[in-house]
Amino acid sequence: ITYTSNYFQDLYDLAVELIQRGHAYVDHQTPEEVKASREKKENSPWRDRPVAESLKLFNDMKRGLIEEGKATLRMKQDMQSDNCNMYDLVAYRIKFTPHPHAGDKWCIYPSYDYAHCIVDSLENITHSLCTLEFETRRASYYWLLNALGLYHPHVWEYSRLNVTNTVMSKRKLNYLVTEKWVDGWDDPRLMTLAGLRRRGVTSSSINAFVRGIGITRSDNSMIALERLESHVREELNKTAPRAMVVLHPLKVVISNLEDNLIMELDAKKWPDAQTDDTSSLYKVPFCNTVYIERSDFRMKDAKDYYGLAPGKSVMLRYAFPIKCTEAIYGDDKETVVEIRAEYDPSKTTKPKGVLHWVAQPSPGVNPLKVEVRLFDKLFRSENPAELDKKWLDDLNPLSKEVIPEAFAVGSLCNAAVGDKFQFERLGYFVVDPDSTSDKLVFNRTVTLRDSYTKGGNK
C-alpha cells in the first residue's frame, strides 16, 4: 500500500517545474471569485504574473509565510474550453493542519486533480481505473502529464457498482457511521468490505458476484442485493456445517419419556453425510424436555400448516415423532408457555412436518445460550440515493434484530470467531467478534431461501 503523502516532496518539486515551464501561477482569488470567473470563462488577474514572482510566492506558501486561504497554486490550463475541468484547476492549497502520515512537515497540500495523475505516473501504473463521474477529468489528467513530460498511464472509466437497498457513496456511508445510524464501518448491514466480512460473506463469493455482473459503462444499472446473496448461499451450502438453534424457544415436555433418561442421537453436519462417517455427524442429547420455535406451534391447525398443534404430530429432526396432547397457558391466559407431548419411540407415525429443536443437556439444565443477530436490508426502497435529502427517512427500522438468549446445541460451544454454520431452517450464520468466553454471538449472513431470479434486469 502506498500513499500520496509518500510523494509530497516529488509533487512539490514538479509543481516548481510546472511554474518554471509557465504552466502554473500563484493566485489570490477567493473561492467565490474563482467560481464566478470560471462561470464567465474569465482569466484570473494574476494568471499572467511573472514566473519568478510565482516561484517566490509558492516558496512563501511552503514556508508558512502566507495565511490560509490567501493564496493557491493554479494550473494554467484552458479557460475557454468546453470542459469546465480545464478551467485552471487548483494544484496546491495552504492548510495549517498536521497530516496523518507526514505530520507537520507541510502546510501546503496538493489537490486530487494535481496529485492523482502524477502519482499514477511515478508508480508506473499501466491502467488508471475510475468511475464514470471522473470521465470529464481525463483531459486535465493528460494535460498535466503532457505539461511535465511524464509517462502516461491509460485511463479507463466504468460505471459505479450500484446495489439495491443500500448506499455506496463514501459521503453517505461516512454520514451513517459518524452520526451513529449504524454501528461502525464494519456494521454487517453495510456494503463495506469490513461489513461484508463481519456478516460472514467470503471473498470468493464477492469475486463470483463481480465476475457474474461484469464491467459496464452503463450508469443506470442497479444490481439486486439478492444476486450477491445467491452467490453467498451457493458457497455456504457447500462449506458451512449444519447445526440446530432455536431463536424463540417454546418448552415441550414429553410425558411418556423418563425424567432422567438422556439419549445421545446422531445429527448430520452435511445433508449427504453417511451414518458410518463419524466426522460428518455430531451428537445431540434427547430427553423429556426439548425446545422448539414458538412460531412452530399453533392452537388452530390448518391444511397448509406443517407445525405442531393440539392433537397433531410432527417429526423432530434426527429424533422421533411427537404428538401434542396439551398446551399450558401463562398467567395472562393467552400466551402458551409450555406444551405437553408424547413421543413415538417406534417411529411408526409418519408426519409431514419436520421441526428443528434443542434439548436440555441434562435434567433441569438449560441448553447453551447464544446471542443471535438477524440483519435485513438497510433501506426499504431499492434506490435510496434517488430520494435526495430524504434518503435517511428510508432507513429500515427493522434492519437489525438482536435475540439475546437463543438456545443452541452443545456442539457449538467451541465455535471460534469467523466460523460459519447453517442453522437448520433458519439460514447461514457466522461467529461475531463480540463473542466472549461466556456467550457466543452469531450474525445471520443470509437466509436459506433464494429469492434471486436470473431473469429480468436484476
TrEMBL record:
Q: What is this protein called?
A: glutamine--tRNA ligase
* Organism, scientific name: Thalictrum thalictroides
Q: Which reaction does it catalyse?
A: tRNA(Gln) + L-glutamine + ATP = L-glutaminyl-tRNA(Gln) + AMP + diphosphate
Tell me one GO molecular function of this protein.
Answer: ATP binding
> Transmembrane segments in this chain: where?
none
What InterPro entries has UniProt attached to this entry? Gln-tRNA-synth, Gln/Glu-tRNA_Ligase, Glu/Gln-tRNA-synth_Ib_cat-dom, Glu/Gln-tRNA-synth_Ib_codon-bd, Rbsml_bL25/Gln-tRNA_synth_N, Ribosomal_bL25/Gln-tRNA_synth, Rossmann-like_a/b/a_fold, tRNA-synt_1c_C2
* PANTHER family assigned: GLUTAMINE--TRNA LIGASE, GLUTAMINE-TRNA LIGASE
Signal in keyword set:
no
Q: Which Gene3D superfamilies match?
A: HUPs (3.40.50.620), Ribosomal Protein L25, Chain P (2.40.240.10)
Keywords associated with the record: Aminoacyl-tRNA synthetase, ATP-binding, Ligase, Nucleotide-binding, Protein biosynthesis
Top class in the EC scheme: ligase
GO cellular-component term (any): cytosol
Question: A Pfam family in this protein?
Answer: tRNA-synt_1c_C2
